Amino acid sequence: MAATFRAVIPFPAALLAFAALGSCGGDGGSNAGSGAKSGPGAPTAQASRLFPDNFKGVCSGASVSAATAYDRAATAHKALYFATHRDDFTDRSSSLPDDWTVRFSPNSDAFRAIDLVVCARRTAARQVKICDEYQNDGRATQNSVRWHTATYELSVREARTGRKLAETTVEATNSDCPMFMSFRSDSETVDAYASLSDSAVADFLRPHITR
Do 205 and 47 touch, CB atoms closer than 8 A? Predict the structure, then answer.
């Protein structure tokens, strides 16, 4: 199996595309895992801890019984954010305001504080351009990206029950080519999709997370 490599559009073609890094849906790139694997010597308590991947199923109506119960009257809430990646969801919580989410802590079960999950499910896409001129270590390749704008179903759910609290449809219209993209050969063409802006997600989630 060919190794995956990361190609780049060189300057100046990438100048405008640089702003698109946060707008790439990731379907063709690589994503770091958010959980931790426990080995034979890992503490038993580690296995019972919650990680972002435990909440991914909430986007499909699953429940996380160990999560914090949602109380609408509470003065603050903590959320995770997942968006479509290929045929699954990927954790995009780092794009939320810091005080709206939690970070992993080796000394506590931080993700038990999560009571909301916001989900961006891609429901439609339209190809708008072909992106090329990618290089691998300064060498020109034949790689290209079929870039799409996309429609997303944006929803917010209770983490403990999976119950949907609100839903809307939002368009991701960024048409800038991604500066970086991963390929498995120097002639591969891949699909990639615009993702929702951080501000669009925050505007939707704000009424449910702040008082």
Answer: no
